[in-house]
Design goal:
about 290 residues; mainly alpha; globular
Length: about 290
């Protein structure tokens, strides 16, 4: 085990963890703050990836710019999905099992639709920085990981400011804690959840564009992230955006070290073993209350 190899594994893990945070923050909002088990979130991320692919191939637009531009479209789409979910299940108190089946159906429909549209072949985008990198002594920093890391940290920072400094952001945190108090403040909990769920899906547009920068994608690859994003969300403390970022760094570094020194097949086991170990010591997660 050389120090150069150790340093490269650490840097790669931190960069990968930054991307994991972008993928997970939507689950932190939907599952942690709104108590909505949106297992279809990876399908929305894949939709963001393939929109980035299509626009990039057709018009040559930068993938990150595509993700940011389409975020408001995803926001509105998320509001529509929540309104259907609320009308059919949550308003009737049937969100526990039937609501979960609803999102499983959304996941299946999304994946099949992408397969019918784009096929099962891997797709990639073109950008000047893909394939480029910088060397910090013996440590290589690939731009295809560094730029998603920067975009992810900026997005989480803006979300943290929004959730902590605005009335709407504080209302999102309060909706799952005390609905009555929220109503006494003249706020409609269903409307707050609708907008918050739209926000969570809006992050999927950016995360999808980052995913296809990191590597080629195909429609079913989103399944690989279902367990990982929920694990990071729980490890970070469910409702904490900074906790999500820290947990993503931990999982990313653990997976990078495991892949480098023991092989990639051990990565999921090590990551979830680490989750169980932390929860055994701190059941509320790293920054949970």
């Amino acid at each position: 085990m050389s120090l150069d190899l150790l340093g490269n594994a650490l840097v790669a893990g931190l960069l990968l963890g930054g991307f994991y945070a972008a993928v997970t923050v939507g689950i932190t909002i939907a599952f942690g703050m709104l108590d909505i088990v949106n297992i279809a979130h990876p399908a929305f991320i894949m939709l963001g990836s393939f929109i980035a692919y299509f626009v990039n191939q057709a018009f040559g637009v930068d993938p990150i710019a595509i993700g940011v531009v389409f975020a408001p479209v995803f926001f509105v789409f998320g509001m529509v999905v929540y309104r259907i979910y609320y009308t059919a299940f949550e308003r009737r108190g049937q969100e526990s099992i039937r609501g979960l089946a609803f999102f499983f159906g959304v996941l299946f429909i999304g994946e099949v639709s992408l397969i019918l549209t784009f096929g099962v072949d891997y797709r990639s985008v073109e950008a000047p920085y893909i394939g480029a990198g910088i060397n910090l002594g013996p440590i290589g920093v690939p731009m295809r990981l560094f730029l998603p890391f920067v975009v992810s940290v900026v997005m989480l920072g803006l979300l943290q400011l929004f959730l902590g400094r605005t009335f709407f952001g504080r209302a999102i945190k309060a909706v799952s804690q005390d609905r009555l108090a929220l109503q006494l403040m003249a706020a409609n909990p269903a409307r707050i959840k609708e907008l918050a769920f739209g926000l969570s899906i809006g992050t999927a547009s950016v995360a999808g564009s980052l995913l296809i920068i990191i590597g080629p994608v195909e429609p079913s690859i989103g399944r690989d992230y279902i367990g990982r994003v929920f694990a990071i969300c729980v490890l970070g403390g469910m409702t904490s955006v900074p906790g999500t970022l820290i947990a993503a760094f931990i999982i990313g570094v653990a997976e990078s070290f495991t892949s480098t020194f023991y092989g990639p097949s051990w990565s999921p086991a090590i990551a979830f073993g680490l989750l169980l170990l932390v929860l055994a010591v701190r059941p509320a997660g790293l920054l949970g209350r």
